[in-house]
Amino acid sequence: MAQVTRQGGRTARIKNPTAPRTPVSLRLADMSRDGLEDDAIIRGVAYEGTPFLALSVEAVEAEGCVFASSRFTGTRLVRSQFSDSTFTTCDFAEVSAQDVSLIRCVVSGSRFTGSSWHAGIFRDVRMENCVIAPGMFRHMKLYSVVFSGCKMTGADFQSAEMHNVKFENCDLTGAQFANAKNAGVVRFEGCTLIDVCGTASLKGAVVQGPGSMELALSLAREAGLVFEP
């Protein structure tokens, strides 16, 4: 159900991400035909503990898949899309993703340490209990995305475009939002927002919980205010 908040005197609706439409029955991965390679089209496959390590692939299309404990460490993905899929306890450390989209996906308990996502799209995505410290999402377009219970210290959202994005119970200490665009509703609920940079770009965002004072201090610092005892 959508949540309703007041923003700038008008009513703004917060749309929850649409859940993945994963097939009821999946076939187990056969790596002789279900590996990640250039121009691969993969549908309705379940991967368990699969290593996709240090690959370099373009134009992958995966739909209705389940990835459990799979490792993408050090892999480079270009112009690819994953839709209606789930990722559980996966490792995306040091992944370089250029023009990569996640559409109607849930990512839980996964690690994104040192990963870089650039100029792609997240639409109807929920990330929960993930470690994204640090992770880069520069020039990404985020539509109906929720980050829940994630460790996101030093996360970089420079020049990202955010439409209907919510951060709940996340640690965003030292996160970077310079030149980010709040193009819809952006909410921070119960988050740690110490030393956040680029706070002026978050104009119009809704902050709920103790993070409101932390964000105010960051905004004051960027404005050049000096506080003396």
UniProtKB/TrEMBL annotation:
<protein>
    <submittedName>
        <fullName>Pentapeptide repeat-containing protein</fullName>
    </submittedName>
</protein>
<feature type="region of interest" description="Disordered">
    <location>
        <begin position="1"/>
        <end position="20"/>
    </location>
</feature>
<dbReference type="Pfam" id="PF13599">
    <property type="entry name" value="Pentapeptide_4"/>
</dbReference>
<dbReference type="InterPro" id="IPR001646">
    <property type="entry name" value="5peptide_repeat"/>
</dbReference>
<dbReference type="InterPro" id="IPR052949">
    <property type="entry name" value="PA_immunity-related"/>
</dbReference>
